[in-house]
Amino acid sequence: MSSYEIFHKTNTKKSIDDAIFFNSNMVEIDIQVTKDDVIILHHDLFCKNQLVCNLYYNEVKKMNKNILTLCEYLNLLPSFMYVLLDIKGNNTKICWI
Asked: Facing residues of 46 across strands?
């Protein structure tokens, strides 16, 4: 657990805001691919007891309205910030999207 995790959940817009506020030059995010090939930020392999890779993006979004796609997240970051992608699960198709 990082020191920032005590203040908010990871992989959220709030985590970006805090990284910028604290002058971080890098963020680490957890990504997975949904059944319809949308790359989302989500740490756990499951969302409400269902594998994320077996769910469509709109299903995940209904379960958690704060879920961000990788594109949404990257568009929020300042250009100077580096990103470390932690690919969750064993679905290798994420490498080709």
From this structure: 51
